[in-house]
Amino acid sequence: MSAPPRRRILVVCHANTSRSIIAEKLLLRLLAERGLADQVEVRSGGIAPYARDGSLVSLDARLVLREVGIELPPGAGATDLKNQRHLLASADTILVMTEEQRRMLAAFPEAAGKPVLTVRELAGESGDIADPSMQDEDVFRRCRDEITRCLALGVERLLGT
Asked: What would the pLDDT profile of 60-76 be if each residue is shown by its tens digit?
């Protein structure tokens, strides 16, 4: 009997240099803790006009992930979904940080018909995860902790269990 197909979760934000990277890495750890790492593929990307493949991950995002034991490789960079549309096409579920990002996805036919949830909706709440860029590391910590809380509350819903 063959293994069930892997679910594909795509985490989206504007530039893929902070929030979506943080959420991707935290979700991967949450899945590994539940023994589900081999059943779910998690990727992330940016959809804003200024998103660029290979943009540097925010130093503050790296620091707040390191504080919770997640180390990003030195060469980790952003993914521009305008150029990497196959990630949208292959996703089973798309998580966004904001309502604006959900609206921006309408410009991508590859995302049509797919479930799109904000991270807060995943947790049964409403509202956006605010962009911490250009702010101090305490704002990044609060962003990380809020993403962590929402993912923990919504992981079962995300997996359809």
From this structure: 999 999 999 999 998 88
